[in-house]
């Protein structure tokens, strides 16, 4: 069973920023084909009259007041990163 | 007495109670791998926390290598509220990486079932369930996305409560799938769950999906069995479950059978939505902000990011790839949107059934499997194990798993589902059950 062509799978991995060794690639490709075939079992159901449920319950829209608050943990948050002054150091963009 | 919390408060404790408790627990942990770390507590009622919930100044990794070394500078709201109620943080419990698993084996040095170490604990709140089965006075703060509280609770013989979606703040939870994640509670007694639930529920300014809502306790005599959910249930499980139903009928309940169209499709719908959401949530692990650090900053962003993500486990890689695929423009309506519409359809159907009854079933379709058996299953077979826990999780419906029998020395759990915001009805039911049925445990660490 081949659902996804090799070139489409490689493109998907590139979009995901996931690199796989050849052996792992083969195993995961096979699993993904099987899982997609399993997802395809939804095809026979007609649920077009139902609106998509993005949440399982209705959650009233709630806004926070538009005011600046001091975040007491700001300094400590940076301890998890390499920092330069108050900037997190990251790779080149 | 049916509340460990009340009993613990009344008992006199020897001066060396906590050091002895910790010594015994650490010794057992080296065998059962329940905790990733244990704190030196010296007072209060102990609670453990699943490793995907942030605890101030305690490494929180969601059992993922990519978060190794991440130390949150804050408590999750649920933890902060529990500490205010004078509970004491005992340790972080192991889990399937990011919650991606049904058996608790998708992590390094995974937990083992306290009833028999050759068997799985269930997942993904694996360590939470095992710790609850081991400690006499303890509750665990766990989390469920698709059955991660009910499944391990059933396999480890404890009570696992998953509330209505949105009742407990998710602030401080390391997200798996935002529209499905629910913080919940595991304990040996339902009364303890009720006590903790009342302490930690309620709206939170840091989680706009968390709401204040009146919680009802509409009990029902009628227990409904959804016939499709019983297909594929192991014969030994079915036979024990029939005995449970007879017992419940003797307690005054009426058992009815109903059908819910397409309920068996809750599993693919659940996996499509959860993987879609997980693939976006996991994009935040870039190798320089949290946990694992790639220190070669000479690399370009994409290369740097790809290298960091090589530390994901195989299941995380699979789910990120599948989640990205189902969200892609060419197939989004076929998979993701369809799953969302199916979720709406199932919620409406289940609400109809739950108007005048509670839904009951075995929690899992199989007996507790051996670790070696679980390791031999392929992903589709593993996902299929969520056939009974996926529907309430997909629908945000409150549910509880409670022990009801022991077969070959291992526990069996039953699952009870009710309508949104009728959470207390579940705990009323299990409290009555616990007066009729005594739960068994192999260990009682910390007994007084």
Description:
The complex is a heterodimer of chains A (93) and B (448). Chain A has 93 residues and is mostly helical. Chain A has a domain at 6-44. In chain A, 35% of the residues lie in helices and 4% in strands. Chain A is built from three helices and two strands. Chain A has helices spanning 6-16, 22-39, 74-77; strands spanning 83-84, 87-88. A two-stranded antiparallel ribbon of chain A has the order 1-2. In chain A, strand 1 (83-84) and strand 2 form a beta hairpin. Chain B has 448 residues and is an alpha/beta fold. Chain B has a domain at 4-215 and 361-436: Alpha-Beta Complex (Amidase signature (AS) enzymes), CATH 3.90.1300.10. In chain B, 37% of the residues lie in helices and 15% in strands. Chain B is built from 16 helices and eleven strands. Chain B has helices at 4-10, 17-32, 77-84, 126-134, 150-156, 190-200, 227-230, 235-250, 266-281, 301-309, 314-326, 333-353, 371-375, 379-384, 390-394, 423-436; strands at 35-38, 45-50, 87-93, 139-144, 159-162, 182-187, 222-226, 254-258, 358-362, 399-407, 410-417. Chain B has an eleven-stranded mixed sheet, sandwiched between helices. In chain B, strand 10 and strand 11 form a beta hairpin. In chain B, helix 4 packs parallel to helix 5, helix 9 (266-281) packs across helix 11 and helix 9 packs across helix 12. The longest helix of chain B has 21 residues, at 333-353. The two termini of chain B are 14 Å apart. The model of chain B has no long low-confidence stretch (mean pLDDT 96). The chains are: A mainly alpha (93), B alpha/beta (448). Chains A and B meet through helix 1 and helix 2 of A and helix 9, helix 10, helix 11, helix 12 and helix 14 of B.
């Amino acid at each position: 069973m081949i659902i996804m062509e090799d070139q489409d799978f490689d493109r998907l991995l590139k979009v995901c920023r996931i690199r796989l060794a050849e052996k792992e690639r083969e195993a995961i490709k096979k699993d993904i084909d099987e899982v997609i075939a399993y997802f395809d079992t939804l095809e026979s159901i007609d649920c077009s009259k139902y609106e998509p449920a993005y949440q399982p319950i209705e959650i009233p829209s709630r806004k926070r007041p538009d005011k600046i608050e001091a975040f007491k943990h700001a300094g400590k948050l940076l301890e998890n990163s390499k920092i330069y002054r108050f900037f997190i150091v990251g790779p080149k963009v | 007495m049916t509340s460990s919390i009340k009993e613990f408060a009344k008992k006199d404790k020897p001066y060396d109670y906590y050091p002895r408790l910790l010594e015994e627990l650490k010794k057992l942990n080296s065998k059962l791998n329940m905790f990733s770390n244990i704190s030196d507590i010296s007072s209060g009622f102990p609670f453990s926390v699943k490793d995907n919930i942030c605890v101030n100044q305690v490494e929180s990794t969601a059992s993922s290598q990519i978060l190794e070394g991440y130390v949150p500078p804050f408590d999750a709201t649920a933890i902060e509220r529990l500490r205010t109620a004078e509970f004491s943080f005992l340790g972080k419990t192991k889990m399937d990486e990011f919650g991606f698993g049904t058996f608790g084996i998708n992590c390094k040095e995974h937990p083992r079932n306290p009833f028999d170490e050759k068997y799985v604990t269930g997942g993904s709140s694996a360590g939470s369930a095992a710790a609850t089965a081991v400690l006499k006075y303890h509750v665990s703060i766990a989390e469920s996305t698709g059955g991660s509280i009910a499944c391990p609770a059933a396999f480890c013989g404890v009570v696992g409560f998953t509330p209505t979606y949105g009742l407990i703040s998710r602030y401080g939870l390391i997200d798996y799938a935002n529209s499905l994640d629910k913080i919940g509670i595991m304990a040996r007694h339902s009364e303890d769950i009720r006590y903790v639930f009342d302490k930690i529920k309620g709206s939170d300014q840091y989680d706009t999906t968390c709401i204040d809502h009146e919680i009802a306790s509409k009990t029902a005599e009628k227990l409904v069995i959804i016939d499709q959910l019983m297909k594929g249930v192991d014969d030994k499980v079915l036979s024990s479950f029939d005995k449970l139903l007879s017992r419940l009928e003797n307690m005054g309940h009426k058992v009815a059978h109903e059908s819910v169209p397409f309920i068996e499709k809750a599993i693919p719908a659940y996996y499509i939505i959860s993987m879609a959401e997980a693939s976006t949530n996991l994009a935040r692990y870039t190798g320089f902000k949290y946990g694992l650090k790639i220190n070669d900053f000479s690399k370009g962003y994409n290369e740097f990011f790809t290298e960091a993500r090589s530390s994901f486990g195989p299941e995380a890689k699979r789910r990120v790839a599948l989640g990205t695929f189902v969200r892609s423009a060419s197939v989004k309506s076929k998979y993701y949107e369809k799953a969302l519409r199916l979720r709406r359809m199932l919620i409406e159907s289940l609400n109809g059934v739950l108007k005048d009854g509670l839904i009951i079933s075995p929690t899992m379709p199989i007996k507790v499997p051996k670790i070696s058996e679980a390791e031999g299953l392929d992903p589709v077979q593993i996902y299929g194990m969520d056939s009974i826990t996926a529907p309430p999780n997909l629908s945000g419906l409150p549910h509880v798993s409670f022990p009801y029998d022991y077969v070959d020395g291992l526990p069996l759990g039953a699952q009870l589902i009710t309508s949104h915001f009728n959470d207390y009805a579940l705990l009323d039911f299990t409290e009555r059950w616990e007066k009729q049925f005594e739960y068994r445990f192999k260990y009682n660490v910390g007994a007084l």
